Structure formats: C-alpha cells, structure tokens
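We modelled the chain as a single entity of 205 amino acids. Its sequence is:
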Amino acid sequence: MTDGYVRVGRVLHGTTAEGPGLRTAIWFQGCSIQCKGCINPHLFNARGGTDTPVTEIIEQAVSAGVEGLTLIGGEPFDQSEAGAALAAAAHHRGLGVIAFSGYEYESLRGRDDETTAFLAHVDLLVDGPYQAWNAETRRALVGSGNQRFIHLTDRYNTYRPELVANRVDIRVRPDGSIQLAGFLDTSGLSVLAHSTDTSRTFRKS
C-alpha cells in the first residue's frame, strides 16, 4: 500500500448520518481488532475492498460540498500511512476530519510515525472497542459506553453527541439495491434490513 491509496470497503459522499454537517464517509477495509458483535464483519478482511486514490476521494468530497470526512471501518488506524495521507489532504482542502478507532487514544499516541502523522490531521477521534455487553443508550454515533469523543482540535468542540439523534441515510442504487448508512442498534437494524431486504452496512463501532 502506498500513501497515495487507501483500501476502502465503501465511500459515501454527502451523508448527514455519520457526524455533524454534510460529510463524506469512508469505510476502511480491514480490521485487526474484530470486536465481538461488530455490525460490519465484512470489513474485517484486509484483502477485501478496493485500493482507491486519495486524490479521487478528496476531489469527489469537495465536489459534493461536504464539511468534512468521517473515517470509519473496519479500522482506519490499521492503515495509518494511507489514513495520514487522506486526512492531511482533507485538511489541505479545508475539510474537517473525524476518525473512529477501536484502539484507545493512549495506545495510538507515540505508536509509530505514521500513526502520529495520522492523529495530527484528525479533529475528533472517537476511540475504544465496541463492547456488546456495555450498550450505549444516550449518545449518538457510538455503540458502547466506553467509547470516547476526544477533541484533538477545536473544530468540533460544539458537537454534543448526547443531544443529537442518530440518523439513517437510505439510498436506492440504479440497480435497485438499497444502501444504508448511519447508526441503529441491533434490533432496529434487523427490523429495517428485514423489511427492505437490505445489505448490512450499518456499524456499531
């Protein structure tokens, strides 16, 4: 993997379901943590997905008029070099960066130069593994109570996940299939997926 490409399972431009404002969501392919109960096990395999140019993602995000990127997965910090290139390019174009990680912030700090460079271009880090036994019932965007919102810059300081309702983005593709983004708990996802015969593209972490 070169720093000009990131291996992704999916990219969605112009969603309001993955953080504050209009955003581009990038699902990183591959996860070494593989939390039990994760809603996106299809993103575990690092050999899946597609190598996508960083410049292509950024140009399409800018064209979509988004406020920033949300980096989810999978595990973005399993691709620290590519993630750093993507986040730096986003900042260069004036876009904000929110990154989710199953790793805790303390373990990421000082891990290696690539991770340090990645963190240097993240405005808001949401950290911690998904814990199926510790369900979150109050805050938006996270699935378990251990997960933290860590502001690395002031850009999203006014974002209050406890005051924001989770949103769902439902899109019908030209072939008639349905794609979902956003966040539901397991029961809500099951009801919606069953009623729409939808692929499982929600997340818990």
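As a brief sanity check on the tokenised model: The CA atoms of residues 3 and 85 lie 6 Å apart. Strands lie at 5-15, 23-28, 50-53, 68-73, 96-100, 124-127, 148-151, 168-172, 178-182.
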